[in-house]
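Dear colleague,

Thank you for sharing your sequence with our group. We've completed the structure prediction you requested, and as agreed, I am returning the results in plain text so they can be pasted directly into your records. Please verify that the sequence below matches your submission; if there's any discrepancy, let me know and we will rerun it promptly.
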Amino acid sequence: MIMAGIYVGEDLVIHFTSTEIKDSKQKHPCAKCGYQHNVDVGVIKTCLVCFLSKNALSSNSLCLYQYDESRFAKKLKRSGTCSTFKCLPPETVVQTANELHKENSFGPYNLVENNCEDFATFCKTGIRRSEQAAMVMNIPMIDPLLNLVKNLKLSAS
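Please find the predicted structure tokens below.
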């Protein structure tokens, strides 16, 4: 999965992270942006270095997600790299990201139903949507696997 966020200028990115604190180990805050892993959760603003370091599954490089692509062009591109949704003006995108950050209000994080891509797509288009999650949900075995995970969580409680 690719980490998605909104670049808001001055080397800063607003993005959506897990709303759960997973462990109590506190690392020192970033000298540039003040970000602290597992202390700052939800809608956060970090420098590009911290944003890229959170993306353990990628190559630590930035990719530009394309909006307003034709359906034909979307079919030719790698899944999770573009959308057919129309993009809002840049000022509106940054304003939305800043408002959600200020209020830390995008709901509880859920990898399938409310994740960083949903956040970025919402800021860019006004629509909550994760192409990566939608692609995974179209895999025939996903429903039985999700039910198994839910049952395991319930039995562990």
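Summary note from our side: The helical segments are 48-53, 71-76, 90-103, 116-125, 131-137, 142-156.

Kind regards,
the structure core
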